[in-house]
Amino acid sequence: MLQQTTTQAVIPFYERFLKRFPTVQTLAKAKIEDVYEMWSGLGYYSRARNLHKASQVLAKKFPQTAGELLELPGFGPYTSRSVASLAFSESVGVLDGNVIRVLTRVHDLDYDWWKTAERRELQRLADAWVKGLPSEEMNQALMELGATVCVPQNPACLLCPLNKICEARANATIALRPRKRPRRQREVWAWQVQIIEKKGKILICRNPTVPFMKGQWLLPGEAKLVKKMPKQFHFRHSVTHHDIFVTLQPASSKLDEVTFSDRKWISSSELHRHVPASLVQKAYQMHQRR
Ligand code: SF4
Questions:
Q1: pLDDT tens digit string along 210-236?
Q2: Whose CA is nearest to atom 4 of ligand 1?
Q3: Best label site of 113, 218, 235, 254, fewest CB within 10 Å?
Q4: Distance, CA 117 to ligand 1 centroid (Å)?
């Protein structure tokens, strides 16, 4: 839940979620629609799907090492290493934005830290920093130092326990570390959506032409990458680096225009449970108002 979301925002969702799914087993047995319902309002629903899938593995066997945890859906290097370190004291360093800032400053590293080779080097350093120490304490200390003392602007160097060994401080390069990551270029997409309803049911499909919600159930329609913003559209929505201009197609669209094989009919009133993404909700609400 904490990926892409602040702790403050997460707390009420977390409490509500745990009340509904108090154990890994209850979560593993739940329907994905019920998981979505408890996730509703947090956004980035792929996290809910991954958590649900991971719970089905975890209900059988809980991996104990970062390497094994990495196999779980939704577990990248950061999550795997955090869990292995904090829960099982495995000697692995955790690399998040805060730790990257501390390490690049203490070692005065002019790295493109988002690139694989440099990232690997930083990971090696993070591992070296926890070696021979209680990794759970050291990892949390480094993350906390980055969050509260070695902050992006005006770090509190006088209060910092590492100020005597900090090379960026000695070299007066603090403001240059870490390097700024170049902005990812935004993509403009035009999405023509069809809302096809029949006897209280609505058609949804896994839409292979839509890259911004890959593999998810969506409304049928065609998405095209375009050079600039379309002149006419019903609404605009942003998902990560995608700017999506949505046009609802006329209600006369025919079912046989929907060519996707992976499709199903669901009750219109249940759409929010099956496809909670706000992009789809907005499109459906707009359709209802027309
Ligand atoms: S001395 Fe300053 S720049 Fe260096 S690690 Fe501490 S807070 Fe960060």
A1: 777 877 888 888 889 999 999 999 999
A2: 166
A3: 254
A4: 24
- In sequence order, what are the beta bridge partners of 236? 245
Q: Quick check: helix, strand or coil at residue 146?
A: helix
Single-letter amino acid code for the residue at 106: V
Q: Is 145 in the pocket of ligand 1 (CB under 6 A)?
A: no
Dist. CA 126–CA 131, nearest whole Å: 9
Among 151, 150, 220, which residue's Cα sits nearest to residue 192?
Answer: 220
For a substitution probing ligand 1, which of 99, 101, 102, 171 has the most ligand atoms within 8 Å of its CB?
Answer: 102
The count of other CB atoms within 10 Å of the CB of residue 21 is: 20
Residues 235-257 pLDDT 10s = 999 988 899 999 998 765 555 55
Residue 199 falls in which region: left (phi positive, over 0), alpha (psi -120 to 50) or beta: left
Give, to the nearest 10 degrees, the angle between helix 97-106 and helix 135-148.
Answer: 90
